[in-house]
Amino acid sequence: MPFFLLDASPGFDQLMNLGAAGLMGAMWLWERRNSQKREQQLDEAHTRILSDRVQLGELMDVVRQNTEAITRLTQLSLLRPKLQTHESRHTSG
Fold first, then answer.
1. Which one of 10, 38, 59, 66 has the fewest beta carbons within 10 angstroms of its own beta carbon?
2. Non-local CB neighbours of 33 within 8 Å, separated by 6+ positions
3. CA distances from 69 to 20, 57, 60, 78, 81 (A)
């Protein structure tokens, strides 16, 4: 006798008195209970995934903004020596 079925239903002894039908009923109750637990786990995982998607979108926005800022800063730092050279030519001439 599978002992894990003993926890499946408070009326396990009553089901076993019904023979094969009782065993099948106990197994169905046990499977149904486990299915409900699994459905709850899937619902929780789905909720977490949706939440993570929102957070990931926000993170991507921050990364995009930082990339744009670094690009602008790099362009300015490359232009600054050229501007200084250009200014020094005009002021000395």
1. 10
2. 8
3. 72, 18, 14, 14, 19
Q: Which two tokens stand for residue 56?
A: 């990931």
| Token digits of residue 65 | 């903004």
Instruction: Give the span between the Cα atoms of 1 and 20, in whole angstroms.
Output: 12
In angstroms, what CA-CA distances link 23 with 1, 35, 36, 43, 54?
9, 18, 20, 30, 47
How does pLDDT run across 1-39, given as a tens digit for each residue? 555 555 555 566 665 677 888 788 888 999 999 999 999
SS3 of the chain: the string is: CCHHHHHCCCCHHHHHCCCHHHHHHHHHHHHHHHHHHHHHHHHHHHHHHHHHHHHHHHHHHHHHHHHHHHHHHHHHHHHHHHHHHHHHHHHHC
Q: Where are the domains of the chain?
A: 3-92
**pTM of the prediction?**
0.45
